[in-house]
User: Fold alpha,alpha-trehalose-phosphate synthase (UDP-forming) from Gossypium lobatum.
Amino acid sequence: MPGNLYNNCSNLPATPTRLERLLRERELRKYSKCLNDCEAELPSSTQDCFSPDLETSTCLFNDEELLETVSASRSLNDDGERLDFRTSKQRLLVVANRLPVSAVRHGEDSWQLEMSVGGLVTALLGVKEFDTRWIGWAGVNVPDEIGQKALAKALDEKRCIPVFLDEEVVHQYYNGYCNNILWPLFHYIGLPQEDRLATTRSFQSQFDGYKKANQLFADVVNEHYEEGDVVWCHDYHLMFLPKCLKERNKKMKVGWFLHTPFPSSEIHRMLPSRLELLRSVLAADLVGFHTYDYARHFVSACTRILGLEGTPEGVEDQGKLTRIAAFPVGIDSERFIKALELPEVQDHMKVLKQRFAGRKVMLGVDRLDMIKGIPQKILAFEKFLEENPNWHNKVVLLQIAVPTRTDVPEYQKLTSQVHEIVGRINGRFGSLTAVPIHHLVCLYLIICFHI
Assistant:
């Protein structure tokens, strides 16, 4: 983004020109020729390994590592002959609260895996330049060893590695600290103000559960980490993870990315554990945000709350620089375009066109979440119908609401509230043949894109 001081990661090289690539490939051939006692050249297939896509896709590579890869990839076989150069992808360990699949148990040692729905999953499906392993919680409690081994084996086929959390840890860490404290605060919703003493006690137990869960994630990462891997931590669920990883291995390359807004320093001050969380995130080598504003808020929190020095590249703490940058998240657009050509999608599109023929259709696709403003959207549509009676039976609002956190009381109340509003408006402006609002709490249209 132009003018973004926190988007100039010096580790991110500019996309090389064709001339630069040719010069680089020539140097690599010279280096390989030296390794082969000046007798052989690199095969042409080697050039694909050092394409611009691979070189610029991460800011954690450098020239020495590339040359070491060339050297390490050439070995001798049993007859003492030099083996051909084999291209290999960089290993990337994606660590997130949830795996991209949900597990359903069938029997003692049998599991069924289904595709998960979420923005993180959708965005990372487009990452194909790396040998990726995904580490996370499968969304189920598996207390027995037989079940854990069977689930780990089933997930291994999907290149996933499970983190096993018991019900108490999930309650304190996920339902408690993540969803009761961090999620509202990061969206500028204040902390609960009821019984201050009870809130403080509850907060401390939730924070302890949060740190325990992050340590369990760190244990799994360390178990599967290989030298040279890049560890990519995701979201507010794992703010404590970079510190846990760096304490075990300072040379580990760790990045952390936040998939929510980061609030201003004035709002972040409301968080009792603000100092510990900020320092834990700063243990990472690279910290990413969606926008420049979020990155600026984070740097401001570090300077005003921790007293550290902010630089155009990030935050410096006693000589250690943590790079801060803005990386807007995108999607694999080709996958969505191809989904439109599927027969089942085409058939469903025809049904929708027939059902809403002659009427304007307003489409909304949102998670059923407190910060998405679904009740406000529906009430605004009611206001439009009140002020424009000539649009009755000529416009329809098709609202797709993807359920989330169904076991949290606040979200259960939100679901009931939305259903009540929709029912009242449809009863007021609808008829026997048509209603103005179609509220669908389902995953069908989302799942179509994961076929």
In short: The longest strand covers residues 91-98. The first helix runs from residue 18 to 35. The chain has 17 helices and 14 strands. The CA atoms of residues 283 and 318 lie 12 Å apart.
